[in-house]
Design a protein that fits this description.
- The chain is an alpha+beta fold.
- Helix content is 51%, strand content 17%.
- The chain has ten helices and 13 strands.
- It has helices spanning 3-47, 132-167, 169-182, 198-253, 260-289, 299-313, 335-352, 383-386, 398-403, 410-420; strands at 68-73, 79-82, 101-104, 112-120, 123-130, 295-298, 319-323, 330-333, 359-366, 369-376, 424-430, 434-442, 455-456.
- Helix 1 packs antiparallel against helix 2 (132-167) and helix 5 packs parallel to helix 10 (410-420).
- The chain is rod-shaped, with a radius of gyration of 53 Å.
- Its main location: membrane.
- Its EC number is 2.7.13.3.
């Protein structure tokens, strides 16, 4: 059953209970008022005209009201009844000298009486009044109350249905919006209503939830697309060395060559390239999903350490670190991951900048960021290459990159790690002039001054 129908039923039921209680209370009060007046008349009559013997005369002018009955009971048990209507009240429960009581008729008649009695000497006088008029008035009052209650409940039901339907119109709008969203229209939103109302709060909460859901869905779609591209690229990259391994194996098995050393050397080279690719894939996966062990990191000290490692890996090559800050450049990050970022950038410059290229790491502070620039004076890149340089498996020269052992994932790993630290990385390059990678990381706000002269090492 719809909610609005339930609400109308509840309103009608509660109102009906209230009207019924009100009707019972009014009827009870009216009954007490009428019976009080009857009792007052009975007491007055018993002390007045009921003692007058002229009521037994045939003179019509001296008779009491027609709805009264007077009974005189004598000591010998005989009685005289005046205004006998044919049905007399039962007197077995009437207490002489007591208050007025309600008794039924002596017989099968449904008539009710209000009776009082009094003894004076040897004579007991009983005065009774029929309650037909009062009962008729009470029944009429009850009928009027029933009719009014039915009309009131009908009006309440109609008004309640109208106002409840009007009040629930925003919920129907929410329902329609939810249906459209379920149908695929993720850009739909619930109309905004005043936040002071319950519907307004519901609409705000739903819109916030829908925004987060849409963002989650879009992120999931992006992740799915990245995963498909990732699997496709990885399959393509692994297919080439596997084909080479299989080709050299078939070459040797077919007897086309008997140079075992050459075949094993080629297979070993291709295996190393596959191993490097797998390691880079694992490194990229860990970079995207790993939790960072963040702590304050001195980028100057870290850069000097990375430069030392690069000189050991590339003997005879020039790697210089320049501190352009007036204080210790400290960021909140994972030392191992930031070490990997700098080492990848320096290695990239030494590997692809040319055999005579030298790399300079410059540290500066710009606003709220610590900026690390890794620049080489090598061969540089064209704008087309720089626009794709951070993409997975991208190579400027596939043959040269494979020969040098590159997988095309190093800079993608660097970008992922930098962004996971809340930073950004960009590249500027010109053919024949060199390449500069700029890494921006949020400054932790350390104020340790090292001096005004930049450090060069």
């Amino acid at each position: 059953m719809p909610l609005r129908t339930w609400l109308v039923i509840i309103i009608v039921l509660v109102s009906g209970i209230g009207l019924a209680a009100s009707s019972v209370a009014v009827s009870s009060i009216m009954r007490e008022v009428m019976y009080s007046r009857v009792d007052e008349d009975l007491v007055n009559s018993l002390g007045g005209w009921a003692r007058n013997d002229r009521i037994f005369n045939t003179d019509r002018a001296s008779r009491p009201p027609t709805d009264y009955v007077v009974i005189k009971i004598f000591a010998d048990g005989s009685s005289v009844v005046f205004n006998d209507p044919g049905t007399l009240p039962r007197l077995d429960t009437v207490v002489v000298g007591g208050p007025p009581v309600t008794v039924p008729s002596d017989g099968d008649a449904p008539m009710m009486w209000r009776v009082i009695s009094h003894r004076e000497g040897e004579v007991t006088t009983v005065v009774a009044k029929t309650l037909d008029r009062e009962r008729t008035l009470l029944v009429g009052l009850a009928l009027i109350q029933v009719v009014i209650s039915v009309l009131v409940l009908a009006v309440l039901a109609l008004l309640g249905y109208y106002f409840i339907r009007r009040a629930m119109a925003p919920l129907r709008e929410v329902e329609r919006t939810a249906g459209e969203i379920a149908g695929g229209d993720l850009d739909r939103r619930v109309p905004q209503w005043p936040r002071e109302t319950e519907v307004g709060q519901l609409a705000h909460a739903l819109n916030s939830m829908l925004g987060q859901l849409q963002e989650s869905v879009e992120t999931a779609r992006d992740k799915e697309e990245q995963m498909r591209r990732f699997v496709g690229d990885a399959s393509h990259e692994l297919r080439t060395p596997l084909t080479s391994v299989r080709g050299y194996t078939e070459l040797y098995r077919s007897g086309a060559t008997d140079n075992v050393d050459m075949v094993l050397t080629k297979i070993d080279d291709e295996s190393r390239r596959m191993s490097l690719l797998v390691e880079d894939l694992l490194a990229l996966t860990r970079a995207e999903g790993a939790r960072l062990d963040k702590k304050p990191v001195d980028l100057l000290e870290l850069s000097l350490s990375v430069a030392s490692s690069a000189r050991a890996a590339f003997p005879g090559r020039a790697v210089e670190v320049v501190n352009g800050t007036s204080c210790v450049p400290v960021v909140d990050g994972d030392p191992a991951r930031l070490h990997q970022v700098l080492l990848n950038l320096i290695s990239n410059g030494l590997t692809h900048g040319g055999p005579d290229a030298k790399v300079t790491v410059t540290l500066t502070r710009e606003g709220d960021d610590v900026v690390t620039r890794v620049a080489d004076d090598g061969r540089g890149m064209s704008p087309e290459v720089t626009s794709h340089i951070f993409e997975r498996f991208y190579r400027e020269d596939s043959s040269r990159s494979r020969a040098s052992g590159g997988s095309g994932l190093g800079l993608a790993i660097v970008r992922t790690l930098v962004e996971s630290h809340g930073g950004s990385i960009t590249v500027d390059s010109a053919v024949g002039e060199g390449t500069t990678f700029t890494v921006r990381l949020p400054d932790q706000g350390t104020d340790h001054v090292t001096g005004s002269t930049p450090a060069r090492r």
